[in-house]
Amino acid sequence: MRKGKQTEGGLRLMTVLLLLWSIHASAQRTSGAAPNRGAAEKDQAADEASDRHFSSSTTDSPQLIPDHLESEEPARNDSKVSVNGLHAKPQEPRDGFLLGEYIPPEYAVPINGYLIPTVAFVTAIGDSLLCIVLLKKEMRSPTDALFVAIAISDMLTGLIPAPVLIYFFATDRFWEFVPYEWCSVFFSLAIDTPRLFHTASVWLTTTLGVQRYICVCHPLKARTRCTMKKTLCWIGAVFLMSIVSVLYSYFEFYPIEVERPSAAEANKTVSTCRWVPLVANEETESVIRSVYHWYLAIAVSFIPCVILVVMNVLLIRAMRQAEKRRVELLRQNRRRESRRLRESTSTTLMLVIVVSLFLLVEIPVGIFKILESPQFANTLGHDVRNSIAITDNLFIVVNNSFIFVVYCTMSKKFRNSLKHLLTPSCRRDTTPEAVEQDV
């Protein structure tokens, strides 16, 4: 009996010891997992912080305002960035202006650093020749004056940001903080000024469509409303309205100088900037930004596109009617009137093609602007939005080069003048039909 009790006591003691050992082992596993969870939470917070981004549109060239710069709290970023083929982990916390942190390098470097500047320089050559030819006395007309204004706007939209894009995106500077003295220059030349000229180009194209509709469908009114003097006044008004429209973007943020550890070199400190909203109150600033964004989306994209679609439909219908009339004039042996009508129809067709190419780019850009608004900002990830914006900017710059191509393809008078300009020994056709002006 005593032996049985001893055995039973021994079993109880072993049970207690096993229970204590299991509790101790469980505590060790828990203490080892806690730091891992803490690290995971830290990495998740860093990923959320790195999700602050630039919203690029050019767009209009390209709008690059980092969301986290609205707050004066520094942003944290644990994500790895490539520096000269290596991977370096940036210091934290930091709130400097680092392009490589916000823009996908696989798109930004080849497109912003090489493609856009190349297309911009080629466009500048073509548009310069276009302006020189159309400003010649025998080529001047209200329609050509608007084409010249559009060509200048398109040329400056791509040409002004090109040196800055090459300087930052085609070199290793993409992976380093933007120097403080470059912060305002970068935004002014790469974003705000191209947006100004692109806005002018959009409104000038709309003006051209409306003017051509009046000339073709209401020729009597065109004699008083589509004169050269009034056309020049409209061009000046459009540029003035464009300046007023984008003026807010020049002052929306201002830079504050900060010093940060270099993102590209170890043991080095660089002077960069942190962007602070001009309006201190966060609620007020959010409302102003939302209103301004929707104003640009509606006034610069939606309304012009709707007007141009309607004008294109009306002009295509008018061209069909003009072709029937031209055939009738030929039957009546009124060849001179038929030739004039054919030249006018050719100019209208040229405009329809230019506007159609314009709409092919601007309608997707307008849709993207709506998706980029504060109300829909969370529908797309920041990498997707930035990739789409960079692609849009490329399409806008490419589209800007088409006016010269269309003129060379469709206008015999322009080709003759261009040939005479480039080869002075060539004798230009001096018949009355060759120097006849378009309406």
Can you walk me through this structure?
The chain is mainly alpha-helical and 439 residues long. It is 69% helix and 5% strand. It has 13 helices and four strands. It has a two-stranded antiparallel sheet. It has a two-stranded antiparallel sheet with strand order 3-4. Helix 3 (105-134) crosses helix 13 (412-422). It is elongated, with a radius of gyration of 32 Å. Residues 1-7, 23-94 and 428-439 have low confidence and may be disordered. The chain crosses the membrane at residues 114-135, 147-170, 232-251, 292-316, 348-368, 388-410. Keywords: Membrane, Signal, Transmembrane, Transmembrane helix.
In terms of topology, how is this protein built?
Elements lengths: L1 H49 L30 E3 L2 E3 L10 H4 L2 H30 L7 H18 L2 H8 L10 H38 L1 H7 L2 H24 L1 E9 L7 E9 L4 H50 L3 H37 L10 H18 L2 H9 L1 H11 L17
Helix pairs in contact: 3-4, 3-5, 3-11, 3-12, 3-13, 4-6, 4-8, 6-7, 6-8, 6-9, 6-10, 9-10, 10-11, 10-12
Please tag this protein with its features.
439 residues, mainly alpha, two-stranded antiparallel ribbon, two-stranded antiparallel sheet, 13 helices, elongated, disordered N terminus, disordered C terminus, transmembrane, transmembrane helix, GPCR1-related_rcpt
